Amino acid sequence: AMEKSYVSMFLLLIVISCALAKDAGKKDSKDTSAKPKLPQTLSRGWGDQLIWTQTYEEALFRSKHSQKPLMIIHHLEDCPHSQALKKVFAEHKDIQKLAEKFILLNLVYETTDKNLAPDGQYVPRILFIDPSLTVRADITGRYSNRLYAYEPSDISLLYSNMQKALKLLKTEL
């Protein structure tokens, strides 16, 4: 019975997103290209070919049910540090490949969940969450004052942190 409710929930999400896409299409009649808009919008440039979740709630649900870890990127469009990190993240082939093993979410606003801001609401910051819905406080960047911050020069550290999030997961299950 669990399977069935999950499927119907998933179908509901598809219906909702299609309805939203239709409305967006009506308003924006200037753009005649028939390119699919949704994936690009959700990726916000962090990896257009990756599957991104739309909300924190959906991401938690999908992480729990797929048993994949969740990677959450907090960023802002008008923050030069966010933009710089996004560029190297999107162009890093190995990171983009590894990211497929995660449930992915990037946010330009804060959630009400205080666990996602353990040491403040700065951007860019990247947190990993286990399918048990536990924030991985042990996976941090190299700044003691902003534990989950990464600079473009930290991209290899971020890559190994992603590997760490996947590895520890396997040994715990």
The H-and-E topology, N to C, reads as: HHHEHHEEH
Strand order of the largest sheet: 2-1-3
CATH superfamily of one domain: Glutaredoxin
Indicate the structural class. mainly alpha
Q: What is the assembly state of the chains in this entry?
A: single chain
How much is the radius of gyration in Å?
17 Å
Show unreliable segments: 17-33, 35-39
The number of E-state strands comes to: 3
Strand content: 5-15%
CATH class of one domain: Alpha Beta
Largest sheet: 3 strands, mixed
Topology-level CATH name of one domain: Glutaredoxin
The outline comes out as: globular
Q: Helix amount, in percent? A: 40-55%
Mean pLDDT over the full residue set: 84
Q: Give the helix tally.
A: 6
State the end-to-end distance: 24 Å
Query: So, CATH architecture of one domain?
Result: 3-Layer(aba) Sandwich
GO molecular function, one term: dystroglycan binding
Keywords: Endoplasmic reticulum, Secreted, Signal
Family: Belongs to the AGR family.
InterPro entries: AGR/TXD, Thioredoxin-like_sf
Detailed description of the structure:
This protein has 173 residues and is mainly alpha-helical. Helices cover 46% and strands 9% of the residues. It has a domain at 56-128 and 152-166: Glutaredoxin (3-Layer(aba) Sandwich), CATH 3.40.30. Strands 2-1-3 form a three-stranded mixed β-sheet, covered by helices on one side. The longest helix is centred in the N-terminal third of the chain and has 26 residues, at 2-27. The chain is globular and about 35 Å long.
